[in-house]
Backbone:
């Protein structure tokens, strides 16, 4: 075992949840971690979790997480023997892996040659073909002329798929249904590929119209051992990118697993693969054929799914083989237990083509549940920056049964409090609840088929209840302030009898509530219905209320006039409280008298039915220790009195109504 080089300090050249994930395993193994951070990540959770954290530059990735020289310099200065690249950034950068080797630093990943070979889709396909791994029929030659591509497309048969040779993340791909679409699609794919990867080279593939994305986790060591750690079903995608992954795959038979697993191991052997990797296949269910797509030469985002069913720690295995240790497992040792599923929570807008959004996660909170593994990149208050991938968290659940795992995931998605930014949370819950998803009957078009843009809108069901919750919270906070000022025993409330109005804005919807405090409860009028509402408890962020005899719990966070309200059935809603009394001001000309400032009612000087003249004193108010008598401005009869002596009222609150003499 003298070839083993023990790692005692590891630098993590990444950020977010994957940095946290790697740190967790290092803590278990006694490895000291060095995190690196950019300007935007100074306060990120993973930075605080590391043993040492070093600032490496501005927020733009080129200045920080892609800055190879800087990262190597920090690794050396910190005495790190190894660098874990996570996924993304430098993870599949062969030159970086090479530079690490040259400087005597272990790169926790496969050898640079394997990364290099899989970096090009055309080379990867050629290599796999030579090793009897089935590849999608297609063309990956050097002649990129439109004539040649057209000719090859005819041979393959439409529809065909254009892909960037250097591609990744679904960029530079175009489906072509007919010959007359080819040239335009080619130009668009070239442009996109050139911009994203600096290479406009394309390959052509048969388009598998109803395919499933099934991938195999592979592992190799430096002693020539290779194996696979079963499959992950990653067919639920948007924009060619995964959002939900599950294992085992609902379409997997032992026989198919055997065939695909064998192909995956062949791919690993073809590369003399010596760390964690993933062989991706597209599976044509009708034809029962599968084809190689690509090898990702790194730890995948969705690796926890494999860990949950195998009980293995893939980061630990990565570190062990990177140190030169032989794999401690045989293929026969790998047994799946139960079922795991992962949903990726993104700061993105499903209704707007899933485009990323940035902003602050005001609150992130969830309840523990048996079998839940929350891999989150954020905590309450974290910012989702425009610089990086907008993934907020990976929600992974395990259960002995597939249905059980779906049920758990759905429950977590309904109950997760993630407030402040638009996310795909409600959309994910809808996907998990969809019968086709639950039946395992889906292909890569699942989202487009079952969730066209108009069905991706988070529903505003529950908006009225959320508004009631916000109203109660608002009311109690005002009460508490008054209570403090006047040292009134807590729980004491004024018995208001006058009705008030409050409006909230939710997106383009406005919701207006009329309410009246009646001692033990409120009467709240909404859309022509009156509800009896009781505030059971409001201890931020938990609000419990009873509407017409039904009690439920809400989570409420307030920032000024913005209320973030969560309830499992309505999800996370954001409500803006409108300015308080515009309506009453309009009414004041019709004999309504209002409090000019926050006051206490000292004395009511009149009675209902009483005739008054201009200048008659109606009420004595006290505010800021000054008394102020509200006088009638015209002759008339007192029609209604809304407040009583002792009440503490806000500016604009209605005091009484006077019917002018000519009407009376
Ligand atoms: P990238 O490297 O950009 O991620 P992949 O080759 O891994 O590209 O493909 C991404 C996704 O595109 C796959 O998961 C699958 O949904 C779809 N796809 C790729 N190739 C084909 C094909 N030949 N036919 C149908 N769908 C495909």
Residues:
């Amino acid at each position: 075992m003298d070839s083993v080089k023990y790692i005692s300090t590891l630098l993590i050249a990444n950020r977010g949840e994957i940095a946290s994930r790697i740190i967790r395993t290092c803590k278990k193994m006694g490895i000291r971690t060095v995190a690196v951070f950019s300007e935007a990540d100074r306060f990120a959770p993973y930075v605080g979790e590391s043993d040492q954290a070093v600032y490496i530059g501005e927020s733009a990735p080129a200045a920080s997480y892609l800055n190879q020289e800087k990262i190597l310099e920090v690794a050396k200065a910190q005495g790190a023997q190894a660098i874990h690249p996570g996924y993304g950034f430098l993870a599949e950068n062969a030159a970086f892996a090479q530079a690490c080797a040259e400087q005597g630093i272990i790169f926790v990943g496969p050898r640079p040659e394997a990364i290099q070979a899989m970096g090009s889709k055309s080379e990867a396909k050629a290599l796999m073909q030579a090793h009897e791994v089935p590849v999608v029929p297609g063309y990956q030659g050097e002649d990129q002329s439109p004539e040649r591509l057209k000719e090859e497309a005819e041979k393959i048969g439409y529809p065909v798929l254009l892909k960037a040779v250097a591609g990744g993340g679904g960029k530079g791909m175009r489906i072509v249904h007919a010959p007359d679409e080819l040239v335009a699609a080619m130009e668009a794919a070239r442009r996109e590929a050139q911009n994203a990867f600096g290479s406009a080279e394309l390959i052509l593939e048969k388009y598998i119209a109803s395919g499933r994305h099934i991938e195999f986790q592979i592992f190799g060591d430096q002693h020539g051992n290779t194996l696979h750690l079963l499959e992950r079903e990653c067919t639920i995608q948007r924009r060619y990118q995964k959002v939900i992954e599950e294992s085992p795959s609902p379409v997997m038979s032992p026989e198919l697993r055997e065939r695909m697993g064998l192909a995956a191991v062949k791919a690993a052997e073809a590369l003399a693969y010596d760390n964690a990797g993933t062989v991706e296949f597209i599976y044509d269910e009708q034809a029962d054929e599968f084809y190689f797509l690509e090898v990702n030469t790194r730890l995948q985002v969705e690796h926890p799914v494999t860990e949950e069913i195998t009980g293995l720690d893939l980061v630990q295995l990565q570190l062990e083989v990177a140190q030169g240790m032989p794999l401690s497992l045989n293929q026969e040792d790998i047994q799946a237990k139960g079922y795991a599923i992962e949903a990726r929570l993104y700061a993105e807008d499903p209704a707007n083509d899933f485009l990323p959004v940035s902003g602050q996660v005001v609150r992130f909170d969830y309840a523990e549940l048996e079998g839940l593994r929350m891999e989150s990149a954020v905590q309450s208050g974290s910012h989702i920056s425009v610089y990086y991938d907008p993934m907020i968290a990976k929600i992974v659940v395990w259960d002995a049964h597939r249905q059980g795992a779906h049920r758990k995931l759905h429950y977590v998605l309904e109950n997760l409090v993630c407030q402040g930014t638009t996310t795909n949370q409600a959309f994910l819950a809808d996907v998990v609840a969809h019968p086709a998803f639950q039946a395992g009957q889906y292909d890569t078009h699942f989202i487009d088929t079952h969730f066209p843009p108009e069905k991706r809108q988070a529903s505003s069901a529950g908006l009225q209840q959320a508004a009631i919750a916000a109203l109660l919270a608002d009311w109690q906070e005002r009460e508490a302030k008054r209570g403090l000022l006047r040292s009134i025993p807590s729980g004491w409330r004024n018995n208001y009898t006058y009705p008030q109005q409050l409006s909230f804005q939710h997106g383009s919807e406005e919701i207006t509530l009329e309410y009246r405090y009646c001692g033990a409860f409120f009467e709240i009028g909404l859309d022509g219905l009156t509800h009896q509402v009781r505030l059971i408890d409001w201890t931020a962020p938990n609000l419990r209320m009873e509407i017409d005899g039904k009690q439920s719990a809400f989570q409420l966070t307030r920032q000024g006039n913005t209320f973030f309200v969560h309830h499992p059935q309505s999800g996370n809603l954001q409500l803006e409280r409108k300015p308080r009394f515009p309506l009453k001001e309009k009414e004041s000309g019709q004999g309504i008298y209002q409090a000019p400032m926050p006051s206490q009612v000292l004395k009511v000087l009149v009675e209902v039915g009483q005739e008054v003249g201009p200048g008659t004193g109606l009420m004595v108010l006290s505010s800021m220790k000054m008394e102020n008598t509200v006088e009638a401005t015209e002759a008339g009869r007192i029609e209604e009195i809304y407040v009583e002596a002792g009440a503490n009222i806000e500016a604009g609150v209605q005091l009484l109504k006077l019917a002018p003499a000519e009407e009376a």
Q: What stands out?
A: The CA atoms of residues 621 and 627 lie 6 Å apart. The first strand starts at residue 9 and ends at 12. The first helix runs from residue 16 to 29.
